[in-house]
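call fold(seq) -> tokens
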Amino acid sequence: MHVNLVEWWGFAGRRSADAALHERAGPDLVAACHAQASSLACGEVLVTAAGPRLKADYVLHTVVPGHPAGRDPRPMPVDRAADYATDDAEAERLLKQSLTGILERASQLGVDSLCLPAIGCGCRGYPPDAAAAIGLS
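ret:
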């Protein structure tokens, strides 16, 4: 099973690990996402079939808000500005919420292996050491 970070604008497959996963999986993955939801709230998890081009049964999609120290330079609609944590404590709580959701959903699916990238450490700006500590807690 693969885990995919979804950006605030929905299932785009345009940046970082998200782009790499969608490129490898092909257009059926984004179509499966849009068939189930147009976007996710922070911490929600969407499960899709991985499709024939990935060596996995499922892809779990989740949203992680931006870390306050790593502001994404792209313009953002005013109503989505809250997608950034306001301080380190909130950032930690929200990342932990997303990771917990992923692990709970994987357990429900009975998976025996999980590819979990360092979600939030790329364009979302989480410091890798801090994200790793949260993920291991």
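Residues 20 and 135 are 22 Å apart (CA to CA).
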